[in-house]
Amino acid sequence: MGDEVKLFGMWASPYSRRVELALKLKGIPYEYIEEDLSNKSPSLLKYNPIHKKVPVLVHNQKPVAESLVILEYLDETWETHPFLPQHPYERAKARFWAKFIDEKLFPTVAKLRHMAGKEKEEAIEEAQQQLKIMEDELKGKQYFTGQRMGYLDIAANVLIWFRVVGELIGETVLTAEKFPLICEWIEKLMQIDAVNENKVPFR
Ligand SMILES: N[C@@H](CCC(=O)N[C@@H](CS)C(=O)NCC(=O)O)C(=O)O
To answer: Distance between CA 164 and CA 66 in Å, rounded?
Structure first.
């Protein structure tokens, strides 16, 4: 086909990892370029001048930035292993939840690392309320996208990262007792080769 696909990423970025996971699930060959975010490459600044962030996918010299946008681009461009739901309403719901993860849940959990005392307790409470919403979304389903791993499962890979953050900050934010369905979902995802190969930052 002669497609040239490059991914500018960073190993510990859950956003980069989403894109790598999607590329692997679809079996798209790509060149990976690891960025040092404290010393960004001229290529990254050229390809993502607005946000100057990873990930950036460069397909035949054309850059696409923002992980969720990249996921949709990959699904629309490569037909193998389609991961967005077929029905427009299901697609809308998947996008809604991906936005919830990025705009609410992820910032709430990420800020825990910089907090202490009462402020932190309140943020943990808030994070757990949001995780409960995600837990409820999994009721009666194998995956967030339904019976098959899809777009929202890829977007939700940050939940795996949260378990690590939980340990790093000495907290128990996302525990199997409180969130059995999310934890089972993490175990299930880990049995998929592409996810397992892709788990480096979650060690
Ligand atoms: N909304 C973006 C977020 C990407 C993002 O925050 N990337 C971080 C790494 S996890 C980054 O490149 N940070 C560099 C910086 O902020 O200067 C996406 O979904 O791609």
So the answer is: 23
